[in-house]
C-alpha cells in the first residue's frame, strides 16, 4: 500500500490527503494520519483527519506527538450536523 500511496502522491502532488473513519475506524484513521505524516508520505499541512466518533487513541505521549503532526482534525458530533430520523 505504501508504494501505491507514494505513486499517487507523486502523480498528484497538489492533492490533499483526507483520512476519515467512524468509531473504531476513527481511531484507526487517527493512527493512519499520524503514520502518513510521521513517515513523510505527506506533510502535516496537506493531511486532513475527520472522525465520526472514536475511542480514545494512544497515551499522553501519543497525544502530544499527534497534536504536533496533524493540524486539521475534526471529530464530528451530533451537535454539528443534522441527524435524519
From TrEMBL:
Q: Tell me where in this chain the Fungal lipase-type domain is found.
A: 3-72
Tell me where on the tree of life, at the top rank, the source sits: Eukaryota
Could you state one GO biological process linked to this protein?
Answer: lipid metabolic process
- Which Pfam families would you find in this protein's record? Lipase_3
Membrane-crossing ranges are none
The name of this protein is Triacylglycerol lipase
Q: Which organism is it from?
A: Oesophagostomum dentatum (Nodular worm)
Amino acid at each position: 500500500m505504501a508504494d501505491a500511496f507514494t505513486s499517487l502522491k507523486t502523480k498528484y502532488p497538489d492533492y490533499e490527503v483526507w483520512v476519515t473513519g467512524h468509531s473504531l475506524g476513527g481511531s484507526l484513521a487517527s493512527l493512519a494520519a499520524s503514520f502518513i505524516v510521521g513517515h513523510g508520505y505527506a506533510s502535516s499541512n496537506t493531511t486532513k483527519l475527520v472522525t465520526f466518533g472514536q475511542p480514545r487513541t494512544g497515551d499522553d505521549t501519543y497525544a502530544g506527538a499527534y497534536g504536533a503532526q496533524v493540524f486539521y482534525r475534526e471529530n464530528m458530533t451530533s451537535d454539528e450536523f443534522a441527524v435524519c430520523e
